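Subject: for your reference before the review

Hello V.,

The reviewers asked for a structural picture of the protein, and I figured it would be easier to keep everything in one thread rather than splitting it across files. Below is the amino acid sequence we used in the manuscript, unchanged from the supplementary table.
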Amino acid sequence: MVRAAVLPAVGAPLEIAEIDLPDPGLGQVRVRLAAAGVCHSDLSLSNGTMRVPVPAVLGHEGAGTVMAVGEGVTHVAPGDSVILNWAPSCGTCHACTLGEVWLCANALNGAADVHARRSSDGSDLHPGLNVAAFAEETVVAASCVLPLPEGIPLTDAALLGCAVLTGYGAIHHSAQVREGETVAVFGVGGVGLATLQSARIAGATTIVAVDVSPEKEELARAAGATDYVVASENTAREIRTLTGKQGVDVAVECVGRAVTIRTAWESTRRGGRTTVVGIGGKDQQVTFNALELFHWGRTLSGCVYGNSDPAKDVPVLAEHVRAGRLDLGSLVTERIALDGIPGAFENMVAGKGGRALVIF
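And here is what came back from the structure prediction:
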């Protein structure tokens, strides 16, 4: 038996419960978690913004140690340090054959599987976004496990599984920020902080952080922001003022709200690029008129998992960490136990802090 945070139903409070995991079968790996990040996507799953089979063990950003492997697993062995990859590519769908593995049509098929059972009554539990990281141990498909490169602290490595891949990819893959360009980042949570660091790594000059909370300015500047704007109805105007009345070359939206997406778009120069990372609900409708689309010549694009290929990007990120360019620990503003996850959700809703990290 292991302890896990279980979502019994959409909209219900998380429950800390004992669960029974099976031994790893063909092509599976059992991992003891060292840490798991509390991501806004977990909140979106719990409140129904994103759909997930329930009851489920949530958590998709994690790192740990391999305890056992099933038949056919050769790329990791017991004792290895690993990162969990919640969106493994199948390699055969249309998106994968195009090299767009972040859009894999089959990446989340495993979320419908029976992952474990409650110890108390034997009821079935699903694995959230494939990996069920809000638990002391988990059993996952081998494709959901990536070897951790050397020189990366195991607990901090959990952040590579979502926040950092997403923020880095938004800058380097989706927006393709070039040295000397200007960038605005909307939302200074875990992903936003990773995005700010990535913009600095890319060589951006002016880097504007935007958030509703004045208290996050110190965090943002430590991550690489050169300027900080408290969100208001004048945000786009303030950003244009900071950039010679032109607007930034690139805006990255990490919130998922219609008004923020629209403001990010308005904050870019003519011909600028806006990348939307935040996951919003169906009720968040963003509108544009045809004339302004023509006149401004801006680009607005969605960004899934940072448009990243974890197998290729994690070694690159590890090199940035070893070289001191990327500071994983600075993204974490709270280290908690399993029973601290509901409080971390409340802080997200209130706009407080960066990433909360569950330490096992």
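For the response letter, the relevant points are probably these. The CA atoms of residues 59 and 181 lie 35 Å apart. The longest strand covers residues 28-38.

Happy to draft the paragraph if you're swamped.

O.
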